[in-house]
Design a protein that fits this description.
The chain is of the alpha+beta class. The protein has 2 domains: 2-136, D-amino Acid Aminotransferase, Chain A, domain 1; 146-280, D-amino Acid Aminotransferase, Chain A, domain 2 (Alpha-Beta Barrel). It has 8 helices and 14 strands. The chain has helices at 2-8, 42-45, 64-77, 86-100, 158-161, 169-180, 224-238, 252-256; strands at 17-22, 27-29, 49-57, 60-62, 105-112, 129-136, 146-150, 185-187, 202-206, 211-214, 244-247, 260-264, 270-276, 279-280. Strands 7, 8, 9, 10, 11, 12, 13 and 14 form an 8-stranded mixed beta sheet that branches. It has a 6-stranded antiparallel beta sheet with strand order 2-1-6-5-3-4. Belongs to the class-IV pyridoxal-phosphate-dependent aminotransferase family. This is D-amino-acid transaminase, chloroplastic.
Amino acid sequence: VIDKLQANFSREANRQYQAMYSSVFGGITLDPALMVIPLDDHMVHRGHGVFDTAMLFNGYLYDLDAHLDRFLASASKAKISSPFTSRTLRNILIQLAAASKCRTGSLRYWLSAGPGDFSLSPKRCSQPTFYAIVISQTFSQHNEGVSIITSTVPIKSPLFATMKSVNYLPNVHSKMEAEERGAFASIWVDEKGCIAEGPNANVAFISKEKELTLPSPERILFGCTVKRLIVLANKLVERGLLRSVVVRDVTVEEAKDSAEMMFVSSLLPILPIIEWDNQPIGDGN
């Protein structure tokens, strides 16, 4: 069995998986064939799990503490108790990154209700499980803009939108819908006609009056990168390059009339949006 797994995972595509930690066996493996989780883990068959990620750049983990805080906040909302303290989780992730010898890539990690059975309730799960993986990949700033559409996939409720759970089927459908229509991604609009977020990124706008505006965080996953963007953007306000930075409700009409629009996420980190529902944003460049 091990030989077959190793043969299947010897392909070039799997060499990006540099190292994995699993609390099931309490250690790190560098063999992609052994980077597996139990089928009866409730994260697999019930979606009872949360996750987060951090960028590994030039040998440094970027903004890990902010991502880890959000990770544990998501776990609390999902009613999953971490088997480790925040400090221990942090140490595991740093040791995993070091063991991988990967200098540029992403660190992804999950907390699950754990394995035990195939029922709905987690009460028979042995204990919550923690998994993490280092993926080698390159990053570059996107200079060319993309087109987007308004999603017809129902928007998540605030409870689930603000929790980074593994239940990403609405996000997947939203992304697929955009690709089927020749766009890069789609964007959710709430019942009040205000902007929410993209399938895996926040949205930001720069008005014609040089105001940087970000949608209110009450029913979206307000990202760590957006929070960092606000800090950096306020320095541009001090230099007179922006008029102000504001977090508030943004209507579709106002958003489409902006001078600039962009996706914001940790792995992008900024992606210009130049067209929305076949309408150019700003000058369309």
